[in-house]
Amino acid sequence: MKKFKTRKSLGAHAITLPQPVLIIGTYDENGVPNAMNVAWGGQVGAQQIELNLSLGGRKTIDNLKIRKAFTVAFATIDTEVAADYVGIVSGQKEPNKMEKSGLHAVKASKADAPMYVEFPVTVECNLRLMEETDYGEMRVVGDVVNVSAAESVLDENGKIDVQKAGIICFDPAGMAYRTLGDKVGQPFRDGNQLK
Ligand SMILES: Cc1cc2nc3c(=O)[nH]c(=O)nc-3n(C[C@H](O)[C@H](O)[C@H](O)COP(=O)(O)O)c2cc1C
């Protein structure tokens, strides 16, 4: 293994590498679908997904307070432009946000939230917890109630194949969306070599 002995301090900033590109689907009080892009989020337990939302101007926060449910889709190479669009335009300011995005909503099967048919993998969540943090953001925790995937992105064992799905990630250091690379190891097995 290579050793990195000379280092440069880059200061404290948001840097976890890589981050997911999560597309959060919610309905408003009239059943109008919305979507936003979230990098600061992920799986935080066997059944929970957590999101960190900035306060002030997020339509998604208003929707979550009312409908108490959301979907989480993983952006793909094919949906990258639409995924970025829903991350730079707010449903508060653009009433035609979803039409302009080109994403098409259908009701999720288990959660009171929209899912978008352009994303091959979607998680459905019921809101468990929503709290303002002392660092001025909204912490959102959802219980996973269903995961659905297009059959075309499943492997021969029925598991989601991230390459087939074309799932992308967010690289905050290089400020880039990137594809996921080749498999380089086997979790829970390769470390056995050192036992
Ligand atoms: C790559 C990317 C990652 C983002 N991550 C977050 C995030 O983690 N939390 C957040 O509050 N906003 C995040 N945003 C910004 C929101 O997606 C954006 O403010 C969006 O317009 C909110 O939509 P809404 O007001 O319709 O809910 C991100 C945007 C991009 C492009």
Key structural traits:
195 residues; 14% helix; globular; binds flavin mononucleotide; mainly beta; Pnp Oxidase, Chain A; seven-stranded antiparallel sheet
Structure notes:
With 195 residues, the chain is mainly beta. It has a single domain, classed as Electron Transport, Fmn-binding Protein, Chain A (Pnp Oxidase, Chain A, Roll), CATH 2.30.110. 14% of the residues lie in helices and 35% in strands. It contains four helices and twelve strands. Strands 3-2-6-9-10-5-4 form a seven-stranded antiparallel β-sheet. A hairpin with a 4-residue loop joins strand 4 (41-43) and strand 5. The longest helix has 9 residues, at 59-67. The site of flavin mononucleotide has 20 residues, from strand 3, strand 5, helix 1 and helix 2.
Give a summary of the structure in a few sentences:
This protein is mainly beta and 195 residues long. It is globular. Helices cover 14% and strands 35% of the residues.
Let me know the CATH homologous superfamily: Electron Transport, Fmn-binding Protein, Chain A
How do the helices and strands follow one another from N- to C-terminus? EEEEEHEHHEEEEHEE
Q: What structural class should be given to the helix and strand makeup?
A: mainly beta
Q: Determine Rg (CA atoms, Å).
A: 18 Å
Chart the SSEs and their pairings.
Elements: E1 19-20, E2 22-27, E3 33-38, E4 41-43, E5 48-54, H1 59-67, E6 69-74, H2 80-88, H3 97-101, E7 105-107, E8 114-116, E9 121-132, E10 137-149, H4 162-165, E11 168-171, E12 176-179
Antiparallel strand pairs: 1-11, 2-3, 2-6, 4-5, 5-10, 6-9, 7-8, 9-10, 11-12
This protein binds flavin mononucleotide.
The site of flavin mononucleotide has 20 residues, from strand 3, strand 5, helix 1 and helix 2.
